[in-house]
Each structure stands twice: as C-alpha cells, then as structure tokens.
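Chapter summary example.
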Amino acid sequence: MMNSGIDIEEIEKGNGQVAQKHDYVLVECLFFLNRGDKVEIFPNYNQFVIYLKSRNFIPGLLHGIIGMHEGGERNLKISPHLAFGEKGVPDKIPPNALLICKVKLLKIVDETFSLPSPFERSRQIVISHRGEASSQKPRWTFGIINEGEYGLTVNHPIPEMTWRHTRTKRTEGFLTQYLMDKVFSEIRNFPNQYPNDIVDYENVWADMSEKAGNTPRERHTNILCLHVSLHEKEKPVSSYYVAENNEAFANLTLCKLIAELISKDEMK
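The structure predicted for these 268 residues follows.
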C-alpha cells in the first residue's frame, strides 16, 4: 500500500499491540539503497527506541511504523523527500536516493525504557550570535540539545526599534550520526587548528547598538563575535569566541548549514 511517498510491503503482520503516533517503540531496522547496497546510517546500531512523534528519525520511517503490530515486519520503500532528500548523507547515501528499510516492531515500550541509542544525550553544541540592531544583523542561537536534534531561533530587529521589537523565526531538524561526529570534531578542534583566531573575552563586543531608553550604549569592545560552547556527557568540554566574519569558521560544515538555514525565507 502507498502512503504519500512510502511503499509499504507487509512481510509479517504480527499479533501484538498496534503502534500509534504517540507511542514509544523498540524496533530493529536495516537500511539499503534501491540498488541493494546496505547502508550503515547509524554505525553499531540496528535496534532503536523511537518516539513516533520525534524529529530524530526520517519521516518515512516513522510513518511506516505507525499501524504495525508488535512482532510485525515491513519492508519500506521511502521516497527521497521522506528520507534524506537532495543532500543525502556524504559517503553513504547519494542525493535524491530512494531508501529501503527492513523494519521489525519488537515491542511497544514506555518512555522510561532504556536502550543505547544513536541519539543518546551525550554531546551538545550551542553557537550564538548577539546581533547588531543598528545594522539590522539578526541575533540567533543554534543548539543541538540532543545528539543530532537541532533547533535554530533567529530574531530580526525591526528598523528604528530596539531588540524589544523583533520578528522571531524558528526551524528544527536533525543530523545523522555521521554528520554529528563530523561537526562536533570540527568545532571542538577549531581552537587548536586556529589559535590566533580565538577572541579574548574582554574584546568581545556585545550589541552596543541596542538602546536603553533613549540613551545609546557605548561601544566598549572591538569585535562582534559568535560564542561557541560544547558539552559531552553533560560536562563542558570547550567554550570560545570567534569573530562573526571569520572565514575559517564560516567554512565549517555546521556553520554552512546555519548560514543556509538563516537565509531561508520559510523559517517559521
């Protein structure tokens, strides 16, 4: 049967409870390209606990599990727009690739059920930009609050007004484990690779164009910066400032993604 971009083949119906969109489920999944090549999307994992309303997993997989019985098995043929889309996954999934998923619903569990997961809370990244109202530069915060799950909030200053008057937009998404490994490594190693590009805290320029009442705040420092912080297993591992126009930092994988997201008009 078809479900808007998903071809579902029922291999084994199963005889347990039926998975609904608000459920947590324990599943076993194997992924393949349409030509038959096996894909290790989440290395060392083939069993996951999935919340079926989560944004952590590709939409086609979530839609394909809903309605399964415990003990059931399905083959899912997932169209690119419900898988990894135009970008694919570097070195794993080509752009616009149709994805095959062999999924078995082991059981429906509750939210306290514990199982190692590719999205275990172990690493977080937060990058923030304070913005500059006078030049209409937006302030924004990008955070990976869970392994791979990100959110970006952008506040655009309204002309002739202070930060108390803004247009706020937000977007969410997720990174594959491959990309999470890559961006965490790049951002963690940046201070070692470019030590001269790290800005001392006393030189960091907050938004000195913002007004307090009718009195302009004076500019006490020199450089408008991004603040970068990383945590691993709930412990801080790195925190630093880098100039907003730093070319080396802008070329990092995650920074290119952030720039692309900020430039999109469809952020809500």
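To summarize the output: The two ends are 33 Å apart (CA to CA).
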